[in-house]
Every structure is written in structure tokens, then in C-alpha cells.
Amino acid sequence: MNVETPLSSDEFEEVTLPELIDFSSLENPARPSEPDTVSSVLKSWIALEVLSPTLPFEKPKELTDRKPHDVFPLNNGPLPWEGKVDKCSQRQHCRRDECAQAADDEFSNGCVDNVVFFEIVLGSIPLAPATRQIIDVYGPSASDAKLNIGSKKSVIATAVVNEHGHIVDVGVSSFAWGLPMALDHKLGVLSEWTSAEENIKLKLKEIFRGSNEEGDEKPVTRKVIKAAFEWMLDQCSLRDRGLNIQEPSFCLRRNFKKGESVSSNSSILNSFFITDLELLLRKVDKGEELPKGVNDFLGLSPTPENPKDLLRDHEAIRKAVHPDYMPHCKWPGFPLVLLQQAAVNIAQHELRGKDGLMAVNGPPGTGKSTLLRDIVAERIYERACAMVKFGDPSAAFGVTGVKITYGSSDSSSDGAQKSGATEVFGLDKSLMGHEVVVASSNNKAVENISMELPDLSAVNGSDVRYFKSVSDWLYNEPPIPVKKRNSRNMRKWMTTIVENGYQGLERNTWGLIAAPLGKSANRRKFLDKVYFDRELSLRAYFKALFELDGGYLTDETTPTIAHIEGLQPYPMRKAAWKEACATFKSLQNDIIGEINLIKKAANAHSELNETRERISEIDAEIIEQNQLLKVNPAEDIVYTNRLKELEDRLSDLVDELSACERARPGMIAMFFMTKPARTWKAEFHRILNAKAATEKKIRDVQREIREREERQLEASQKSERLKAERDELILASRRLLNNISVYKEKYGTSFVDEEFFEQGHDRYNRISPWAYEELNERRHKLFKAALDVHRCFILMAPRQMRACMSAFQAISSGYPVDAELKPFVKDIWSSIFLIVPVISTTFAAAPRMFKDVDPNTLGWLLIDEAGQACPQHAVGSIMRFKRTMVVGDPLQIEPVVILPEKVSLALCNNFRVTFERWFAPKVSAQVLADRCSRYQAKFETEIGSRMVGIPLLVHRRCREPMFSISNAIAYDDKMVHAEPAEKQTLFRQTWGPSTWFDVKGSSEDKWSKAEGLALVDLLIRLAEAPTPQSEPDLYIIASFRKVADELRDLLDAAEKKHSLMTNIGIKNTTQFLSKRVGTIHTVQGGEADSVVMVLGAPDDSEGGAREWAFGKTPNMLNVAVSRAKQDFYVIGSYNAWSSVAYAPQLGSRLLREAFVSRHQEMRLSMFEKISMFDK
Q: Residue ranges of the DNA2/NAM7 helicase-like C-terminal domain (predicted)?
């Protein structure tokens, strides 16, 4: 049945429609007076998100996690809530016996663990005509070719009804409201969306909420759906715009756990980020202080002056890796190399106990995941340091008097529970602030982190274990039919797994170190297994311990997890707690002592440098003093002659004065002051003044002579003191040199001094500073001891931990957080992090998951693949955390943008925001973080220099020539190659080393049939080879979506007709074609032994397409080649592509082979001749 057939026009009862809300008065506000204010940036981001369709889809099943059985047509027959249809799609996952029995009833109306709802999709807007109209209004740009629209549509609105057809909630699309505003040049009003949304939702809900003559609520009918749709078209001014609006034609079945909030878990129509952006905007407009990380990210913190260049400033590197900042704890595995350790140390120094943000630039294969593991390990250690201070761990949980209701089987129409309660405990502040969340815009990156950390291989053979049975259960599904998953069978399955050394598990894990939450489906899975499950959940374990302590646990009520993890009475758990604390403290003291010794070694080098500098200063001062000691005979003669002249002159003046006194006129002449008397008097005073002046000159000369003698004496004495000090310093430097010689013998090449850097860039970057095997082994043991502390701490407080899990289950399921509960949301979250130290999420899911978490509350946010994240998508998550580490690479896949560039430019113009500073794809979260980093590195590229955060340089993924290609086009040849071991892949044995297969042929819309034929031919050669022992590790990527789609169709046909994929060892063709064949975007974050890249677009007329594919930046080619660990093959026209952008680097480093197909002549024994066009 076609679920997309529009509603029929049958006549139904009259529907009363509310009046339309008048938005015509909304006008663009005046442009800001200042450019690039934070308020303007936030408003422009809000407007951008309003215009961004959140859930574009082609087929309705895409709105249900590709479950077509959850899509119901609306065009004929009974509506789903009217007829007898199976209203539960979750029974196959339910462990309740009554649910399993209900599964046999074809017409059952629900699952005892679930409440069913239906989400009516009230029409959709095809994005292709909408985008064309936007481009017509704002103009085209070259980047429009990157928009991946196709036949996708955007939902206009939704209505959620319960199993009786009664309205529960409605949703309105911001895109449906904002598109006409944008087409009418009212971009400035888009930031007013939230208030408009609330008003529209109230009116829309009125349409669906009707009652009969008795006052009972009536179920929703087709007429009501049709009327609501028509009202929305008028309300949003969508009519007569040539948008080819699609009418309502289907609804979606939604299943919720009893107690989950329907309104918070139904389809998301609008940007996930608008609420957070508006919260920040309100704070800015009110003048409230923003979290430090947000200030840094948005450029409100002072710009770092003279940031340290960790590529060239050796002294800055030496200080960054100084043992003062060395973490005490380490993740099991290989030690970190120089700049990895620098990044971890800087995090310790810059962020430990302080708020802020730091940036790490990680090119592909340079150990970003390894770096993040050590960051996680140190957070676990820090929390363990706080835990061991509690004699009784239960004392860490304070009574709040707040309770959460839960657990009634009698639920309201929206699924809210009515009775039952659990306590909410406060958590001691010392145990808070250590939370770690890994977030990314890339689903694959989040999945990789979530899967890698708990995997047994991640601890490199260490015997560390942490609730392993729960982790195994979370990441695996037992091969037992749902109906038979009773206690006995589950216990038998897990016991058998344990007895067989965990063989048979799809994923063998070491512990519950991390969990993927984020989207509601992941949270449900986590809660189902870790909370609800009766046999293997932690809740069941805590309940068993609590009952054991109370003396009423029986064999029949003991869950499977208790048998595996161990069931100890309280006295034994208390003894284990004390032992865990003692072991932890003993290791901690040993490591602190050892690190103090390393500090002495590092400080000895610093002291030696300071001593040498002082000796140089003394030498210069001694030279200066010696200059003062030098006697100049000419100067002595000058002083002697000068003094003699003055003394002779004084003698003459004395004689003159005596003669003058003898010639003194008589008394009467002097009395009457006759002329002779006046003459005499003048002469007498002249001689007297001359005598006084001469005497003064004599004193001055004598003083100068005396000062000169004193200076010489002082210089002589100072010179002696300096020589003595110099002698002492020389002795001290010799002692330091002797000590350093001993230290160097102990620490070897890891001793960081001038000689360390004289080894050269490639050599010293591969060294682990100040690390040696014995110390790293102790740090590994401390990591294990810290987790033992966590485990014992948790088991000492089973009642409190069970209550915390119940509270977390409630708020995760949409339990309303009121003013009484709000202050303790952070305590509930921090309590969950006691159990699961790391939680991963996408940015898209984070605002909903943490919606009740206040800003600047949680501990550490680690952003992975930040180069792909739009800045407005990251800022809300940064807001909630005290400390943020941003890790990524701006030279891989850029942020995905779904709006034409000219619209973004128009938004920037409207809000006076600089496009190149704030808007993707020009700017990513990584770029903004790099700007504010106090530690940076400068790379020179063909498109100019770029400054990035702390650089990671040692590449371990790719062999040659992939490494050199990536290094040359993107990283200024600064990456260092720690080449992985060579692996004789089936591809190299069959196709030879990395090669460009030069294919001649034409194309149609970039798809070259000849290139597709070449790929099939190469795969046939693989099929001829001996059957591989393991599944081939291969990516097949294309430069264009059209080419990728054609390749999938081609390979699918080859498999269906000739089992081609099976014959080369592919076990699941559907999964391979979905996850391993696609555009370059498909493989971002992944890696494979071999990669085949099909270029397409060989025609002369497609030069623009080729330029677009490889672009003005090396990003796309960089991602493509850096996925391949062993071999990289190119299929396409050499003449057409080899001179495009960065392709010359590719062509010069790959072998080139003119491709000659054997396809037309060959017939293989395993299948008939393939024709690539017989699809």
C-alpha cells in the first residue's frame, strides 16, 4: 500500500478552525550599530537554525529508524487508533513474559511495558522547489552545488495522539514558518520564532481537541487532519508559492516506556540548538556573566598575546611536558608521544580546577583517541582521590527530602505515571566536576568512542575489569529467542560465556567505562539493559545487595549478575573497600614519589641552564670590573698636573691677597669710602672669590681622585666576589652535570633538554617525554586501582545508587523537573557518572538530554571531530560544562550546510555579522577554539598560513604513499611518520601496490559506465583469488553522490545475479553497501586496509564539477587518502583529473596503469559473465 497517497476528500463533520495569527506586522529590526557583537552573532545563528530543516526525508520509514512496519497510511481504511492493528513494535525487545505471550495475539492493543502513540505528519515541503525559490530570491553561488537535497522533504507539522486517537501534543516546523519570511525578505524576524511557535501550537491544538455531546473527547478523524493541514498552510503563508506542498498521507507508530514524556520524545521538527542559543542570548542581553568556555569560544575573553608556537618554540614544548604537570594515572597501553603528552599536561595545568577551553589539532591517524583516553583516566583518578576520603561511602549521599513518583501501571493518556516514589539523594561536591562527555556532530565519531573505550582491546592486555558483565550485556545480544529469555536461560547463557572465557561474544568488553546515550533510542537501550533488566542490570544487582544486607535474599530472587559479579555481605564489602583504598593510596604515594624524582631531573636541567646563564652573566660582569681596575697613566698625569696647577694658583692668590691687605687704605678713606677705598675693596673681593673658587676646584679634583681610587677598590673587591661565585657555580654545574648524566642514563632519550631537540623534528616528536616502562606500569596499576575504588564505593551504597539510577531513569524519560527537583539534577547526573565515567552523544541530542542541566555545571566536555561541527551546534554543549577540550582538524570534512550560501550572507548582512568569522563552512567549532588557544602551531599551505591549536603530529595509520600525499597537501610536511607494519592485503596481492587505474570513457551526469566496469573487473579479479580467511577490509568511495548511488546499484545487481560480493568474502552485502560504499563524507572518521576511489566526471564539460569535488582546499582529498591504511586505488581519467587542485600530488605518488578490461573475454567458473548494464 502506498502510504504517501493523500487523504481522500470524503465529507466529514464540520471542523471549527481558530482565527489565524497575524504575523504581517513583523518587520526586520534595525541593523545593529556595531558589527560582530555577541548578541548579533547569536541572533544570526538562531535565524540560521530556524531556516534549517531538521529531519529531511525521502521515504516515511526514514522518520522511524527505517522501520517500515511503524508507518501507517491515512488515505483509506480505519485509522490506526480506530482498527485492530498491532500497536506495539517493541515486543521483540521486551523481556516480560506477559509481553512475549501478547506477541502471539495479532490484534493485541499494546505491550505491558510500553505505551503506544501515533504521530500524524501534517504534510511536507519538498526541499528542491523551496531551495530553487530561495536561490531565485537571494541569488546563486558556486557552493550551491554542494547542497544535498535530491527529493527530500521537510515536515510542516505533527500531531501526536494516544491509542484512542485523543490529541496529546502538536509540533510545528520552524522551516515551514520561516521559509515564507525569508522569501519575503524578512530575515530579521526569524529570531522571533520561539514566541511564534508557542502561539501557533496553541491554535493548532485547538483544532484537534474536540468533544461530543456528552463532553467526552473525540478521537481525531481524517477531516480534522485535513482541516489542520489546510489551516497550517494559511497560517504559514505557504499557499500559491509554487512549493508543490505534499498533503498528509501517513502517521508513525511511537512506543514509549510507561512514564516517558511523549512531548519530549516525539519527532523533532526543529533545530535542536535554538533553545540553547536563546538561553545564551537572554544572558547576553541581560548582561549576565557567561561560562568561561563560552566566553573563550565567542571571543569575549582577552585574545592570547604571543601564543606559544609548539611547532617551533622548543622552550615552550619543554615547559609543556615538564613533570610538574604529569598526570599520576594513565590508560593502559602505549605511552603518549611528545605533543600528545604536551596536550594532556596543558589540560592538567590550564583546566584542572579552573574553567575554560583548549584546542587540540589532530590530523588523521595522529592519536586523538589515545589522547582522550588519558584525559578520561585522569578524571577517574581525580574522583577516586575524593572517594577514598570517605570511611563510609554512603555518607557521600545526602538526604534531600525530594522524591520522584514512578512505576504505576495506570498511566495517563500522555504516559505520565501516577504513583510510587523514589528518593533523590544529593551528592557530595567533591565527587562532582569529574564527569566526562564526548560529543560530536559526527554519529560515527560518537559510535567509535563509545565502542572503542569499553572494548577489551582498548586496555592492551591489562587485567583491569569494571562491571564487565553489565558492559558485555549492554554491547551484545544473546542468541536466545525473546520468549525464552527467562532467568534460567539467561543465567545459563552468561555462565557459559564466562566459563568459555567470553568466547562467542560479538563484542568482548572489559568494563562499563562508557555508554552511548544522546538520542532517545540510545537512552532507552541503556536503561533497558542497565536499569530495567531483571537478570543483568545494575539495578537488579543493587537490589540483590540491599536484600542480602536485609537478610531476605533467596536463591530464587538472586539475579544472574550477582552470580557473575559476586555477592558479598556488607562486612566483606567493607573490608574490600578498605583494601581498595589502601592499595590506591599506596600506589599513589609511590607514583608521587617517583614523579618528584623526575621533577628533580627536569629541574636539574633547568638549574643547569640557569647556572650557565649566571656564569655567563658573571663573566661579563668580571670583564666590566676589570675595565674599571685598569689604571691609565695619562689620566693620573692629568689629575696630578691639574691639582698642581690649582695649588700653584692658590699659592699665587694667597700672595696676592697678602699684598692687597698690606695696601689697604687708611681708616678715614675706608670710612668715607673714597675712590681709592672702593677700588681696593673691589680688588680684595676679586682675589678672595678667586681663592675660594680655586679651593673648591682643588676639593673637587681631590674628590674625583678619591672616588676613582674607591671605585677601583670596589671593582677589585667585586671582581674577587664574582670570581668566588663563579667558582662555586662551576662546581655546582659540574655536580648538576654529574646528576644529569645519571638521570639521562635512567631516562634515556626521554630526558628533555637541548640535546633532545637536536635529534631532529622526526625523531624527537616520536619520543615519550620523561616516561619509562616501570613508571608507566605503575600508572596503569593506579588506573586499575582507581576503578576498583569506584566499584567498591558503589557497592558500599547499593540503596543510594539504586535510587540514583531510578531518578536518572525518570528525568531521562521526560519526568517533569519542577523547582523542587531542579537543584538536584546535577547530583543525579553526577551519580550516574560514578557508574559510567564517560557518556557520548551527538550535539543534536545533547540539548534534549541535558535540557534540565544548568550552565557551567558538569565537568569535562571532549569535542571530537570538531572540524565538522558548525559553531552554533557546539556552543550550547560548551555552555553546560566547566571545561572543554576541542579536538579536530579543519582540513578534513567541513561542516555540512543545507542552506544556499547567499542566504547565509544575507543573514550576516542583516545582523552585521562577518560571514568568514562566524558561519560554516568557512568556520567550524575547531576554528573558533583554535583562535582562543594560548598554545598554537602555524602551518604553511598553498592557500596561505593557518594557525591551529596544540598540534598532534605523529601519524600511525597510513603507509606510503598515502601518508606523504596527506602530509604534503594539508600539513606543510610537518607530520611525522610512525609507519604501521606492512600487511599483505588481498587487494595488493591481486591489484598490485597503490595505483591510479587510468580509465578512458564518457559520462552522463558525472557517472562513467566505463569506470563502473573497471571497478567490477577489479572485484572479479579478487573473486578469482583464493578465498580470504577474513572479510576484506575495504572502502569504495566516490567523488560525487550520483557516482556513489550508481556504484551501489551496480554492486547490488552483481551480488543478486552473480554473488560477486559474496565471492570476494563480503558477509553482509546490504551492510557493506550502506556503510562501506558512498561519498567521501560516508567514510569520515573511519579507516580500512584498502580504499578504492572512483572519480567520475571525465568529460571536458565537467571541469567545474571536478574543481568542486577537490575544491580550493585539500579537505576532500585529504580525507579520502587518509582512510587507507595499506593501499589506495584510484579509478578514473588521469588526463581529466591529474591537474585539478591538489590532484598532482596524488598523480605523482601513485603508480599509473592504463586500465584494460578483461571483462569482455572472461568467464569465471563461479558465475556467469557479468554485464554491468543488465541491472
A: 954-1133
